[in-house]
Amino acid sequence: MFESLSDRLNETFGRLNRKGRLTEQDVDDAMREVRRALLEADVNFKVVKDFVAAVRERAVGQDVLRSLTPAQTAIGIVNEELVRVLGTDREPLRLPERPPQILMMVGLQGSGKTTHTGKLALQLRKEGRNPLMVAADLQRPAAVNQLQALGKQVNIPVYAEGTTGSSPVTVAVNAVKHAMERGYNPVIIDTAGRLQIDEPLMAELVTIRDRVNPTEILLVADAMTGQEAVGVAQTFHDRLAVTGLILTKMDGDARGGAALSIRAVTGVPIKFIGTGEKLDALEPFYPERLAGRILGMGDVLSLVERAQELTDDKDAERLQNRMIKGQFDLEDFLDQLQKIKKMGPLSQLMEMIPGLGSQMRQAKAQISDDDYKRIEAIILSMTPQERRRPEMVRGRRLNRIARGSGTQRNEVNQLLKQFRDMQGMMAQFGKMAKKGKLPANLPFDF
Amino acid sequence: MVLNRLFRRRAEPDVQVQQGLEKTRRGVFLEITRLFDRSTMDDELYEDLEMLLIQADVGWDVSQRLVEDLRSQVRDRRIVHPTDARELLRNDMVALLELATRNRKVKILQRGVPWVILVVGVNGVGKTTTIAKLAAYHQRFGRSVMLAAGDTFRAAAIDQLQIWGQRLDVPVIAHGPGADPGAVVFDAMQAAHNRGADVLIVDTAGRLHNKTNLMFELGKIRKVMQRHVESAPQEVLLAIDATTGQNGLIQAQEFSKSVAITDIMIAKLDGTAKGGIAFSVAKELGTPISYIGTGEKATDLAEFHPDTYVDSLFFGVGEGL
Ligand SMILES: Nc1nc2c(ncn2[C@@H]2O[C@H](COP(=O)(O)OP(=O)(O)OP(=O)(O)O)[C@@H](O)[C@H]2O)c(=O)[nH]1
Ligand SMILES: Nc1nc2c(ncn2[C@@H]2O[C@H](COP(=O)(O)OP(=O)(O)OP(=O)(O)O)[C@@H](O)[C@H]2O)c(=O)[nH]1
Ligand SMILES: [Mg+2]
Ligand SMILES: [Mg+2]
What we know:
Largest sheet of chain B: 8 strands, mixed
Number of domains of chain A: 3
CATH class of the largest domain in chain A: Alpha Beta
Helix content of chain A: 55-70%
Shape of chain A: elongated
Number of strands of chain A: 8
Largest interface: A-B, 50 and 51 residues
Radius of gyration of chain A: 24 Å
Shape of chain B: elongated
Distance between the termini of chain A: 34 Å
Structural class of chain A: alpha/beta
Oligomer: heterodimer
CATH superfamily of the largest domain in chain A: P-loop containing nucleotide triphosphate hydrolases
CATH architecture of the largest domain in chain A: 3-Layer(aba) Sandwich
Structural class of chain B: alpha/beta
Order of helices and strands of chain A: HHHHEHEHEHEHEHEHEEHHHHHHHHHH
Number of strands of chain B: 8
Bound molecules: guanosine-5'-triphosphate, magnesium ion
Strand order of the largest sheet of chain A: 3-2-4-1-5-6-7-8
Order of helices and strands of chain B: HHHHHEHEHEHEHEHEHEEH
Distance between the termini of chain B: 9 Å
Number of helices of chain B: 12
CATH topology of the largest domain in chain A: Rossmann fold
Strand order of the largest sheet of chain B: 3-2-4-1-5-6-7-8
């Protein structure tokens, strides 16, 4: 179902390449593909409309049509625009010097508030602080026990009152007092999940906010959310003036378009992403990673990061340089594949490689070790020269490699094509880095 | 009402569904009804329709298909009045869902053999709450129910189920946190058998469908059940959150691969999300959508009827009655 946008654009422009000349109509076709890709990634339709208009304008201005690689140029523009909307600057938590620093977690039911209360507390303690978690969800069965259990896991105190006789507001107010007396700081308040249209419960949040005056109001949103993300976030923001977004369950395979919608509509920065159920699964947000993911082009940066865990620093630096300069070749690829294979499930790795993940999913095939072996066999059947310059693989060379690896010509071709797409993406990141559009604290320096 | 005359409703209104869906229809789908109040069927109408469907999370593919179908039907049958076209669209949408609903298995409870319901889904969609709702549902039919706390992983998941058990006066078989879910299920099967329970509902930890080892675990749980009762689990219910976008289809596909899903329930339809992914799921998988969740209480469960669902979405409470 999900083909990557780069595949589709290549097809759109490729078809017309043969005609010799690209027209305005081709840009329209390309924009239709962009629109579709974003909608399939759950970006809100209104946001998509504005977004595509902006991309179209730039595409015409930058003469995508006269570019030698119109698909890559178009993707570059889409990617840059995505990153621009998602926010290029990292926004850390606002923790003013003077206590109390109060963080308030809000959101729909089941989005991950309680879990992320625990994750933030753990992270803040690692930074040398002395956090207190507050169980202000008196609604969901065992919500208090849940937070207490998390507290026990990481040995961080939880403020709780009995569920009878107290209200979320009094719990929050008393907890802050308690924290000031005992020297806990920051204070993280977990609240019950609620629908944004539930007026009494929204009013309750407003009361809590007004009584404790939080430094951060964090909207916790599920990465799998569809079109309604906009309505939800807008209402929470209107009522509470949300200061940050935490995007949870990013360890899944949702495209995460909801984040783009929320950011575009509210302007609220995305502060963290949640990548698992365990309390250490909290990561800073990198716009370029999400951009690639929304476009279904894999997560090159994560791939690099993993590779880096296995390679020594010097090796990694060399690799990065080759990547940005567009020199990353099949030799490097093979080397990385072999290293990363040691890192765990191959399917995860494949998901990160632009094109590969979606192709595999499209074929409804489980990515197995057989696939890996096939790819490895193909690359091993190539001469070192061919690996460095895959574009020379044609005709008889193609036949020889297919025979040598026990595969079909089209399989070899497919791999080469995917590899070209991947190179394109990497070069794109490289260009962005040169223009200073990547934040300084990337997992590696360009 | 004019609407009523123009668009006769077919299904008996299901009050519970409609109340739950009231908010839903107030958004997008009421606009669908209005869309067809225009005087002519022009391109703009089709475009707006496509947008409204997309907005309801129906997804690009299915929206495209519904709009194209409508276009060609309008052409072939030379329809001029938008209200007639609306009738066609409604039929199309109902048909899509019915395709799947028809596959629904009739529950035949056998004496002395517990009817085992395994509830699965990604994290936080509403599995445990749905189990409480299902327990109440089966109790209303006079069936004795037992629950199994198969989520031993998430903090206080066992407590949560036990609180529901107390509220509904239903026994809960549980081990401690971190215990092997297979062992819990083994005991629960035994207990259900010994106590002659009619229905055993098994909770499982939320899991993302791309985690191979966790998905594999579901297969193991299934095998444990089958060691006791060959036909168990007679029902494997996948819970999907109505707020979920296009990932909902992938969830349904992947869970189906790991544990033969027999039924789907859509939770949280009391929110503003429209649950439009139901159409993709029905079209691609043909797995019946059997229930919807419309709130956080044990009574907030309704059976899913395509007619009523689509009608509620178009009209909502009151207007058509
Ligand atoms: N895979 C994954 N699961 C997560 C993540 N964050 C939370 N979860 C899980 O999602 C489910 C719901 O999380 P909770 O923290 O209970 O959500 P909540 O927002 O507090 O829920 P309510 O209080 O009921 O509104 C639990 O199963 C969590 O383990 C994440 O980043 N990745
Ligand atoms: N509004 C609304 N909330 C619901 C509905 N069903 C469940 N919830 C809420 O959603 C949150 C998560 O529900 P759970 O039943 O704990 O979800 P779960 O799938 O068991 O979660 P995990 O076990 O953590 O994966 C809770 O706050 C429930 O009260 C529903 O139909 N409507
Ligand atoms: Mg909670
Ligand atoms: Mg649960």
